[in-house]
Target: Acireductone dioxygenase
Amino acid sequence: MAILQAWFMDDVPNDPQLPHQRNPKEFVSPDYLAELGVLHWKLNPEKYEDDEELEKIRADRGYNYMDLLDLCPEKVENYEQKLKNFYTEHIHADEEIRYCLEGSGYFDIRDNDDRWIRIWIKAGDLIILPAGIYHRFTLDTSNYIKLMRLFVGEPVWTAYNRPQEEHPARRNYMFNFGQKIGTPLKAH
Model:
């Protein structure tokens, strides 16, 4: 089973759909992502309609709403503008749950030192970003991704662009996952 790929990003301001790996490359471990509240499962996207593991995750976490999104220039109105909006740094008041069924793309998140980490999701990756984490999304150069979007209850699409330090979701995120001076992190 392939492991989720993530790395610290370079600061080159060119095409956001490029990998933006530092030289030398600095990969980020799944344990480090977990310390930031990011969860990941590798599932079989070919059987998403009757996947017992997916159903267990949905039941355990209360994800009772689901829809599918094909994100590519041919299928999305105002594609360029939508991609630009997704790539604007923001938070949400709820978790962001995405299951990649086809294609690939990048979720970028901020760590506790305000460094960008790029997470490359591909078919089979189910990723959960905690409420209040600064993040953004873009496609990679394949220009296509099919995502399952999951929610607890009715979907809420509201993005709160940075800065949002006083937003309750951000404050809660920092309390749960931010640096705690004098408190060691538990090993996973």
In short: The domain at 8-177 is CATH 2.60.120.10 (Jelly Rolls). Confidence is low (pLDDT under 50) at residues 181-188. The CA atoms of residues 72 and 143 lie 6 Å apart.
